[in-house]
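Recap from last week: sequence in, structure out.
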Amino acid sequence: MNTPVEPQTTLLPEAGVRAGSGAMFDRIAERYDLLNRLMSLGLDQRWRRKLVQEVSRDAPRGPLLDLATGTADVAIMAAQQLPERTVLGVDPSAEMLARGRTKVEAAGLSSRLSLQEGDAQALSTVADHSVAMVTMSFGIRNVPDRARALREMVRVLMPSGRVGILELGEPRDGPLSVLSRFHVHTIVPTLGAVLSRDAEYKYLARSIAAFPAPEVFAQLMRDAGFVDVTITPLSFGALHLYAGTAPR
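Predicted structure tokens:
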């Protein structure tokens, strides 16, 4: 069983900065992409590509909403892979979005891809049943009220709209579980300390360890209203792709 820790309520040493908040990610935005590549051993883009492929399968026509878009890696990939779709990326970190907008402009996607500051728990600018797909990569574990965020996803999705959520976790069984835990608890904080801020990456390691077991999170999706929920383990269970469909 995963330990019942709630790292998203922890304060970092600087007063008023909640671990996992937009303010925390503002402070690591400058090197976030580099750290992602290094800590994932270069696999993070492959995982995101699989996310877009899964969520677009059998999705109705309409826009894609990318939550916790960060520097817009998934949003850009979605716009490139789905040229007939418009894409909206939402994130609570202004600094991450600023870097994302630079990447969007460089990719020539500004006409179809927009980014805005916002909270996955309260998508006030997104109308009911207005998007065909919702994606979220490596962000749901930072949301204080995950059930509320999932209900918001159901609200904004069209009937039979698709959701895809990528999230890291600690494999508890199998020959690579010890190696994976060493990577999360030793390599990730060490890289963070060398290349960025130690406190933030210690938090990220704790948040991975505290994320619910796959079936527990999948049930949370079902409780929010999603149907046909599936769980696909990736990289020997170091992360999972959760997919589901909005009620028809």
